[in-house]
């Protein structure tokens, strides 16, 4: 009985920040964003995934960081939409899916199996009934959970030098990453931008993966490359001078090869980040990456590689929907920002008297989602 209580306490400690952030964001999406409930739940599940990634830095910081992402202009732009007559039926089916996953969890005593089953059922339901080809909402959802599995696996396999010994990641990490990557590419081939970080992360897990795993990953990548070439490349625009496009204010949903050479494009991408999290968010991101590189080098390297891939896409892509397509970059920015605040709080705790001053860091960080929420309510 004591063992069961201990397991329940551990599960509660693991999941309460994510559930709290999910409930708060769902309420905001439905009431402030006028979003149909099933779409709101899909977006909230993405917020939940980001919170799970951040929970290692403390429950409070995880909630603050994930809500800052939820209330950012790029993420919030996915709210809204018309009424859905099937919403009630969808919720009933979703409830049955969650109940089935929970029973599978209890019967097999495999939490990861139940969570994986629930995730797959929800994704298929969300995709089949409310999603569209290249669904941005589904891409957001899959990216959030891909980052969670990747970061969690890397931290388990490569803990801090002063922490516990490393351990091999579970099957839920390796198979989960392959499954989410395949679903992401099938939904939107742009998901292949996660490939460099995913491949590097898998190599740093200290786990020997079978040949079929790498073959499957390569097969999905080939499918994604073909799809990305069809969707985002156009022979008329690929070699079009980026400088001329900038001067003429051209906006087309295609990539221009020399966009990264234009200084104004760098300013444009940085401005996207500033408009989401302010200039302080950019500085916090730099600090967070530097601290991650010190204490969790594999996490820092993998996230930096994914960030660079999406930043390069942002530099060369001239579509109007750049900020939304760069949401994976913004998720990584939030991870770096939250870790920076966590590291600063730890420094305050060790160096200040009284040590409770370490709460100043998360208290100041909590202003960010509040400011972003005020922007939303003020614009209504």
How are the SSEs placed, and which strands pair?
Layout: H1 2-32, H2 37-54, H3 59-70, H4 73-76, H5 87-108, H6 111-129, H7 136-157, H8 171-187, H9 195-203, H10 211-232, H11 235-238, H12 242-248, H13 263-295, H14 297-316, H15 322-325, H16 327-351, H17 360-365, H18 367-378
Helix pairs in contact: 1-2, 1-3, 2-3, 2-7, 3-16, 3-18, 5-6, 7-8, 7-14, 7-16, 8-10, 9-14, 13-14, 13-16, 14-16
What would you say this structure looks like, in words?
Helix content is 76%, strand content 0%. The protein has 380 residues and is mainly alpha-helical. The longest helix has 33 residues, at 263-295. The mean pLDDT is 84.
Fill in the keyword field for this structure.
380 residues; 18 helices; mainly alpha
Low-confidence stretches: none
The portion of residues assigned to helices is over 70%
Q: What is the beta-strand fraction?
A: under 5%
How large, in whole angstroms, is the Cα Rg?
21 Å
Number of helical segments?
A: 18
Strands, total number: 0
What is the H-and-E element order? Answer: HHHHHHHHHHHHHHHHHH
- The assigned structural class equals mainly alpha
Note the gap between the termini.
52 Å
Entry summary:
The protein is mostly helical. The chain has helices spanning 2-32, 37-54, 59-70, 73-76, 87-108, 111-129, 136-157, 171-187, 195-203, 211-232, 235-238, 242-248, 263-295, 297-316, 322-325, 327-351, 360-365, 367-378.
